[in-house]
Amino acid sequence: MKKIFLLLIVSALIVSCSKSDRGELIGAKTQKFFPSQPLGMILVPSGSFLMGMADDDYVKLENAPVSTVSIKAFYMDETEITNGEYKQFVNWVRDSVVRDALAKRAIFELGDAPSQEDLDKDNSINTFYPSYQVQEDVADEEKGGYTLYKDDVSFGIDFDDKSTYSLNYDNDILWDREDYPDLAYAQVMEGEFEEGTGFFLPKEESFNGERTFNTKKIEYTFTEFDAEAAIKSDSDSRKNFFKEKTIAIYPDTTAWIKDFSYSYNEPMHNDYFWHDAYNEYPVVGVSWEQAKAFAHWRTMYKNSYQKSRKKNGQRVASFRLPSEAEWEYAARGGLESATYPWGGPYTIDAKGCFLANFKPNRGDYASDNALYTVEAKSYWPNDYGLYNMAGNVSEWTDSSYDKGAYGFDMGLNPNVSDSTNLRKVTRGGSWKDIAYFLRVSARDYEYQDEKRSYIGFRTVQDYLGEDIGINDNPNKVF
Fold first, then answer.
1. Residue 387 near residue 376 (C-beta atoms within 8 A)
2. Axis-axis angle for helices 183-190, 83-110 (nearest 10)
3. Alpha-carbon span 48 to 72, nearest angstrom
4. What is the DSSP code string of 177-197?
C-alpha cells in the first residue's frame, strides 16, 4: 500500500511538472525576434527635431513654419533607388507575366488533366504548365511532382484567382526566336495565336526593324488596404476596403524629351534606363503610383524568401515611401535647424567643390561636374550616412501636399494622407534645380501620375520595437 501511495505522488509530480509554465502567466510562446537591417538601408534612430524653415523664407511661400516633431525609428535606403534595382522589379514582373501567358496556352493545348508523359516533355510549351494542389490522400503517382496549391483538382484552374495555381519558375524563358521549342510557344511570344496578344511589337512599329519588347504589356497587380476609409466607415467587412490596383511599371523614358522643349536629350531617352552604364544611377520617369508598386513588390519579394526559408513567424515590416516628416528628419542627419543636409549655409566645401548635384552659378549645369544625374552614391553622405538627400533627383514621399499642413499636423509622426488629393510632396531638389530647392525644409509637389526626368524615390521600412540601446551605434548590423 505504501508503494502505491508513493507511486501516486511521483505521478502527480510528473504531471504537474510537465508544463513548463508551472501554471504561471508567461505569455504566448513565440519565436525570438532579432531586428535585421535590410541590405542597402540605414537606420534612422528615433528622435525629435525642429521641422520647417528655420532660416529666411525669402520667396514668401509661408508653407513650412517651424514646429517640434517626434519621429519613430525607421530604416531608409542609403541611396535613391537605382536603375539596376528598379530593373530587378521590372524583370520579375515581366517574367511572371510571360510565364502566365505560356501557362494559359499550355492548358489550352493539354486541357485540365494532362498526362505525366505530356508534362515531362522537353523543349515544349508543356514545361510551363501551371501547377496546382491535389488532395493529401491522392496517391503520389497521381500528384505529378507539382507544387501544392489547390485543394481539389476537379475544379481545375481559375485564372481569375491566382491562389488556384502556381507558375513554374524552374525553366528559363527562351526569348530568341531560333530557340522557341514549338509553334504554340512561338504564337504566345509573337502574338500569332490571338489578336492583341504577343510580347513584341510588330515589325512596322519597330525602329529600323529592331525586335522591340512591348513594355505596355507588363503590369503589376497588387492589393492595398485602405485603412483611412475603414476607420471612417461603419462596415464590419474588411473586404470592402481592399483596393486592387494594376500599374504599368516601366519608366517613361520619353520624360527626358517632354520635360525640356527645344533641347536635345535623345541620348538620355535612348540609353538612360536601358544601358548598363547607368545601372548605378537613380531611376527617373516613375510616377508616385509606380514607386508605391515597387515598395509593395519589395515587401512581397522579401516575405516570399522568408517563407521559403521556413521563417513564417519572421515576416518583414512593409517597405513604403517615407512621409514628408520622416524624409526631412532623415535629410537633416541630426543637425538642428541646418539649411542643407551637410549643415550650410553654403553649397561648396573649403576647397571650392560643390556638395551636391544641382544647377549652380546662374544655370551652369557643368560646374558641379555633372550635366544630368550622377551615380546614386556620389558626394558626401550626411551624418546618418544617406547620400544625395539634396540634389541629383527629387524624391517622392507618401504625403499629400497641403500648403497649411504644418498648422494641423500632429507632433508625433505627422503625415497628410489624402487619397482624394492627387498632389504628392516631393523633396530634396534635383540636378536641374537651383540651390533653394536643395534646402531640407523646401517643399514641392507633383501630381501622382506624372513621370519626370528629375524625380526618383527611395523607400523606408519601420523599425520594429524601440531602438533604445543601439543609439551609440544605430547602424550596427544584427
1. yes
2. 130
3. 9
4. GGG--SHHHHHHHHT-SSTT-
Cell output for 429: 531638389
Q: How far apart are the C-alpha atoms of 392 and 457, rounded to whole Å?
A: 11
What gap in Å lies between CA 450 and CA 224, rounded to an integer? 21
Q: Cβ–Cβ contacts within 10 Å for residue 7, how many?
A: 10
Q: Does domain 50-82+280-462 have CATH number 3.90.1580.10?
A: yes
Contact (CB, 8 A) for 321 and 457: yes
The total of other beta-carbon atoms located within 10 Å of residue 96's CB is: 15
How far the first Cα of the chain sits from its last, in Å, is 60
Residue of 94, 88, 320, 103 lying closest to 220 (CA atoms): 94
CA 131 – CA 136 distance, rounded (Å)? 15
C-alpha R_g of the chain: 28
For residue 166, what are the CA distances in angstroms to 123, 131, 157, 161, 170? 20, 5, 10, 11, 12
| Three-class secondary structure of residue 221 per DSSP | strand
C-alpha to C-alpha distance for 427 and 324, rounded to whole angstroms: 8
Give the CA dihedral 179, 181, 185, 190, nearest 10 degrees. Answer: 30
Q: Is the dihedral of CA 226, 231, 233, 239 positive or negative?
A: positive
Q: Count the residues in the chain.
A: 478
Instruction: Divide the 478 residues of the chain into consecutive groups of 10 and give the mean pLDDT of each group.
Output: 46 50 83 83 95 78 87 97 98 93 84 70 78 47 38 54 72 90 90 72 76 90 84 79 91 96 94 96 98 96 84 80 97 93 90 92 86 96 97 97 86 90 96 94 96 98 80 55
Burial 217-226 (b: 16+ CB within 10 A, else e): bbebebeeee
* Distance between CA atoms of residues 165 and 54, nearest Å: 56
Q: Are 460 and 331 in contact (CB under 8 A)?
A: no
Residue 277, CA distances (Å) to 11, 104, 286, 393, 427 in order: 75, 37, 19, 18, 26
Query: For the packed helices 288-308 and 83-110, what is the interaxial angle rounded to 10 degrees?
Result: 70
| CB proximity list for 227: less than 8 A, separation 6 or greater | 241
